[in-house]
Amino acid sequence: MLRRRGAPLVRAAATTAVIAGTAGAVRHHQDQKYAQQDWEKQQMYAQQDAAAQQQAQAAQQQAYQQGLADAQAQAQQYAPPPPAPAAPPAGADLTAQLQQLAQLRNAGVLTDEEFAAAKQKLLAG
């Protein structure tokens, strides 16, 4: 008789163990599923971050190249003026001025004294 009374208890205990084992297996499967989803999200975010960094580097490189091109264009635009032509030799200029004074004296515009004073002034420099 004990067997008949104990059988339902054993059956209930076995059923409870099966249910608890099934629940544990389902939970383990769900935990793995959620962990896989989290890992996939992290991989997606990492790929997005890498793509964003590559875009930022490309934009930075492009900005650097544009700035370099702008600086070169400005340097060409604002190049210093060419050097001034060399002054004519002082002897040629002095000779021309003396010839003008002589012409003025010959034309009667300057007296001999004025011519001599102007000549002396030119030669003194």
3D structure, described in words:
The structure is a single chain. The chain has 125 residues and is mostly helical. Helices cover 85% and strands 0% of the residues. The chain is built from three helices and no strands. The chain is rod-shaped and about 160 Å long. The mean pLDDT is 82.
Task: Provide keyphrases for this structure.
single chain, 125 residues, mainly alpha
Compose a concise summary of this entry.
The chain is mainly alpha-helical. Helices cover 85% and strands 0% of the residues.
**Which of globular, elongated, flat, extended, rod-shaped describes the shape?**
rod-shaped
Helix tally equals 3
The low-confidence parts are none
Number of strands: 0
Which oligomerization state do the chains in this entry correspond to? single chain
User: Hey, roughly how much beta strand do the residues contain?
Assistant: under 5%
Cα Rg: 54 Å
Write the layout of secondary structure elements.
Layout: H1 2-77, H2 90-106, H3 112-124
Helix pairs in contact: 2-3
